[in-house]
Amino acid sequence: MKNYILLILFCSYLSVYSQDFSELDLKEIPQEIENINALILKEPSGDNYYLRGYYYYQIKNYPKAIADYDKAISVNPNNYRYYYSKGNTNVKLKDYKQAIDCYTKCIGLNNNIQKAYFNRAFSKTMLDDAKGAIDDYSKSIAINPNYLQAFQNRGIIRAKLNLHKEAIQDFDKVIVINPKFVEAYQNRAISKAMININAKSDFDEVVNLNPEDPEAYYNRAIYFINFKIKGDYCSDIKKAVSFHYDTAVELLSKFCKK
Questions:
Q1: What is the model's pTM?
Q2: Which stretches are TPR repeats (predicted)?
Q3: Where are the domains of the chain?
């Protein structure tokens, strides 16, 4: 018999943080760029280049944003914000090596920026540097002990490294911070299952928090089947099928023939 595995191994990494500005109406940005162009002619300051770089970032013109951040840095190489924002733009371009370099320079100028550690951790993850990412998430948490996203991401990496006990501790912390964070229950359930800790209550909570998600029912059914846990897995499979979740159809035919 085919050995079914959990469909969703671990939820995706949380998005890298964006820059610390309020969102602008995109329709306003071209005029704002024109305004800042005129201002730069009179006062080519680092902050003016930085602001124009941000506007370019908002309209997803990342090469021009990088160029302006570079100009800002050339005017004032000691402003950590310039490196931070350039790092974020490099992430958008998937240039993670350059992003890490920018975040490292940012941290060198100000080592109390939790988002810089978080974003550097994210970039390291994209380059398969799991240990470096864990270290940076830990540094981010040291600055902010209630940093939910950092605990979540560190837990995911630890779980992928089969460090399930440590991962469970991270997911525990996420749930303390936000008891309705469904992904933490899902990930904690899977880590528990991997080391033979009963995870039924966590799978139940995923369903309770997300009753319209077919994967919640499907994953709980798979847990019952794979780990030989007592439970009405056929009801879960049928529920997933009722949501037109095609992956569950094969389970229905194999395990719920009656």
A1: 0.88
A2: 46-79, 80-113, 114-147, 148-181
A3: 28-77, 78-128
